[in-house]
Amino acid sequence: MADTVQAAATSPDLAQARELSLLVELEACWENLRKTPGRPAAAYDTRDLATIQKAYDAFRTKLATYNRRYAPPHVPERMLNTPLRLAAWCRAMKQLYLQVSDDHRAQPPVHLLEKTYRWADRVSLRLKTDRADRPAPPATISAAIEQLEAVAQWCDRLAGTTAAVAETSAPANGHLSERQFPQAPAETGPEESPTMSASTPATTSSSAS
Q1: Is residue 154 over pLDDT 70?
Q2: Domain coordinates of the chain in residue numbers?
């Protein structure tokens, strides 16, 4: 994912950056709908599933079009469940939107920022720390860029704290035993989803038809 965005952000082709910015916003919209925190799959009714299916179809159509036209192809990113991963992703998104910031057709990535804060909340929960500050949804591209950098810096502070804990836990000989080494929280999969994933074909349940 980061490679795809960096390629667009450093490309003289503004059209590619614009298309990628639209694609990641559609991707974020779909992901946010299917990963509402604290909402089990059983809580989704037929209308909810139809809305999720519609968002998925829009994303997959845009993905197919983008990947036919541009290289490298866009691949949905891995889980952003560590400070380092989330910071790198935020800065890649920042670079992308800097590329289109002067384009009057570009819209602020509201869904992408919601995705950013959703992952930040998960990181803070795993590391048992305060949540990142969450301003109002961005009304401009510039505001979105500022928010992405703010979350990246929040992640940097978390990563620095984790490194400091590891360093102070080291014994005098400089080696950590398996028991002494700070253990990362167990890897968890994406939240329970009421519908499809990006890597599988979309299928709408009979209840949503």
Answers
A1: yes
A2: 2-165
